[in-house]
Automatic annotation (TrEMBL):
<dbReference type="InterPro" id="IPR000413">
    <property type="entry name" value="Integrin_alpha"/>
</dbReference>
<keyword id="KW-0677">Repeat</keyword>
<dbReference type="InterPro" id="IPR013519">
    <property type="entry name" value="Int_alpha_beta-p"/>
</dbReference>
<dbReference type="Pfam" id="PF13517">
    <property type="entry name" value="FG-GAP_3"/>
</dbReference>
<keyword id="KW-0378">Hydrolase</keyword>
<dbReference type="InterPro" id="IPR013517">
    <property type="entry name" value="FG-GAP"/>
</dbReference>
<protein>
    <submittedName>
        <fullName>VCBS repeat-containing protein</fullName>
    </submittedName>
</protein>
<keyword id="KW-0325">Glycoprotein</keyword>
<dbReference type="InterPro" id="IPR028994">
    <property type="entry name" value="Integrin_alpha_N"/>
</dbReference>
<dbReference type="InterPro" id="IPR006311">
    <property type="entry name" value="TAT_signal"/>
</dbReference>
<dbReference type="Pfam" id="PF01839">
    <property type="entry name" value="FG-GAP"/>
</dbReference>
<feature type="signal peptide">
    <location>
        <begin position="1"/>
        <end position="33"/>
    </location>
</feature>
<keyword id="KW-0732">Signal</keyword>
Amino acid sequence: MTRRNRCLRGAALAAVTAAAAGTAGLSAVPAHAAPKAPARPGDFNGDGHRDLVLGSPFGTANGAARAGFVTVVYGTATGPDPAHRQVISQESAGIPGGSEESDGFGASLASADFDLDGYADLAVVASGEDSNGPLEGGGITLIYGSASGLSSRAVRFGTDDGDAYAHGAVTVSAADVTGDGKPDLVAGGRGSFTLYRSLASGDLTGTTTTVGHGEGETVQVSTATADFTGDGHADLAYAYIWGGIDGQDPSLRFNVYMGSSTGLADTAAYTSSSIAARSLAAGDVDGDGRADLVAGVDTDRGGQVRVYPGTASGVGTATVIDQDTDGVPGTAEYGDSFGASVATGDVNGDGRAEIAVGAPGKTVDTVAKAGAATVLYGGPGGVTGSGAQLISENVGDVTGHAEENDLFGAQVSLADLDGDGKADLNAGAPGENGGGGALYMLNGGASGVSTTGGRTFYSSTLGVQGLDAGLGGVVLP
């Protein structure tokens, strides 16, 4: 395993106005004075309210199929307000490049106040940017926040740029790896990961580490960043599925790399092979002050979740939960895809993170692939099946009803969108309404996720109908 520093060509900062994916524009967003402290992730206009961001990497932009776009719905004291929204594609003024078929703009999202100006910024991956084939390409566009939201500044970086050790970004996450109080960005590529540690100063130099075979033929990459050891430095979990070339066998691997003041380690502190981790998340499930690592894993019995407790030296032995675990509603069945997406957040305000688990392939009341999400509750001994909730479109007064191929739970997040201090369940159903998609927001509370009084955001609600938006397929964590 080798490491190389590579200096990326800096792109000039350019004006970016909110324009729709080749069509509409920005609904007015009230401006706010700059806060004195850095903004929390997802608060692009610095008003103290979390904003909702949805990626549509398979959406049509400027007539180009799968060029992709991103929809931002700005937050208020009562939650996201569709009247104040923004749709950004690579056709939007100031966004570097242009919309091309299969760019996949919006494939992964991360947010932090990278320039420390009081407004959160948004990193957007275009997983097929500069691609010569389905397993190549990838790049990052960083859009800066302002008093009126995502602003007139953007820069693109992270493409492979001819470097054989980097295969372009396909996933991103933000965390303070170096412990200097400034957010860093970690990009997972096909066969490598890159740490960008000086974005606050405008430096786009990335430090790249190859992983496994270091080949672009890696077909899926998942990453998560958090402080698993409690030493003040965020660490990286990187999982990949390598397809194999020239007759070699495919491989599955799951690695954890420790952070430090100098960056991420070259070699993994923890590694496990033959684990098909399709999704990763991190949060303090047991309340001990260290982040725990959550992996959604493919199995012959419809999938499972593995929870690795954070320890002083890395991560410990995993607790395994599936739909046959005591207390977990439902039954494990082939094709459920339980664990296709995972997320963490404190739903009930007890200081411990819960885990949301998406199962987009689950049959609901005989309806195939309608999909569901399960919420697992944290406790002092970690997570168990006790008190788990199963949520679908046929539960409570969740808007609509389960339909074939809705894929409810294809992506989940646990983020506080209504400002009450408790995480809300945000479950995507990208197959809803013929592929327009929908995002279901269900409020967190002291007794768990409420299935009454939630809100639903459809492609028609957000002005992106007819563009294959697949809303809910990618959600800002």
